[in-house]
């Protein structure tokens, strides 16, 4: 593989396309042969978040560069005006060719390779990386970032088929991370479950405030990447006293994996902790397929209806508009199905649990660099149990 190839079913996150000062450093190939990159996300300081008129996607260095460039352009305009005054008010006859068109003199093109004296370098990936070399590079990178507690390092892929979108970072995950960072009092010391965590960036941010975060998804390759991202950012979580546990949770299954031989299985103690202490459930940009959306809401109902305490759910979503041949118009089918599921959840009456749904404003502080478009939404669901039967064992809960 010597390049990233786009197919008809390939998708690429806007976060990776427009991340300012991006350091998309390819580190290796994963188990299925996809290139794995590493990017750094910096948490903005209070000073950088203060100016509402500045573009949040720009770093301080970029804004300084823009200021310098504006000054240079202003000086150039002044020089041109002065030159025009000296030349009689700028009334200079334009140069025309034989057909009467404006004759524009072009600068001769230069060959950058010849000017630099260097040969063209075309990097080619020959083989998957050596695990020992990965550990050495990871150790070096950790040492480099130890002094920067505001840097989040995330391994991810780019340009994946739809079934592997969890290996990319999406705007909904960053929006939810912003909300978490803007509400530290709410989440401090809590036990949190993330559904469809993907690369784990939102769980990592949550663990800088919360006590325990169960970071869940499906797929060994994805969970391994998520586990590595947790290890890359352990210094941020340990200093805050938080912990991320990467576990498998399949929305299309009715029970949790407790097989001790499986790498990302749950222990009985963790299952008990999940049902007894989870105060918040979060999910970031996970509703893009109707079947998976149905599975998500069934999982939310199954979990919350067996809690003996109130649980608050936060779901971020990006309303993606697509032209469909079926409607011959622009529509948001995935978002519409998500809205339908929200409405059905709120109208559900079964005597076990009640759900209250509300959309939250997205005007909270922006801590990370991305484009917060108007199609990004954050929803809050409050689940209150009506039947508080503590006699059910956790094994019975899993089987139900």
TrEMBL record:
SUPFAM superfamilies: S-adenosyl-L-methionine-dependent methyltransferases
Compositional bias of kind Acidic residues: 132-146
GO cellular component: nucleus
GO biological process: hematopoietic stem cell differentiation; methylation
Comp. bias (Basic and acidic residues): 48-68, 95-118
Keyword annotations of the record: Methyltransferase, S-adenosyl-L-methionine, Transferase
Gene Ontology MF terms: protein methyltransferase activity
Pfam families named among the record's database cross-references: Methyltransf_16
Annotated InterPro entries: Methyltransf_16 (IPR019410), METTL22 (IPR038899), SAM-dependent_MTases_sf (IPR029063)
Region span, Disordered: 48-146
CDD domains in the record: AdoMet_MTases
The keyword Transferase appears for this protein: yes
UniProt protein name: Methyltransferase 22, Kin17 lysine
Protein's organism: Seriola lalandi dorsalis
Lineage start: Eukaryota, Metazoa, Chordata, Craniata, Vertebrata
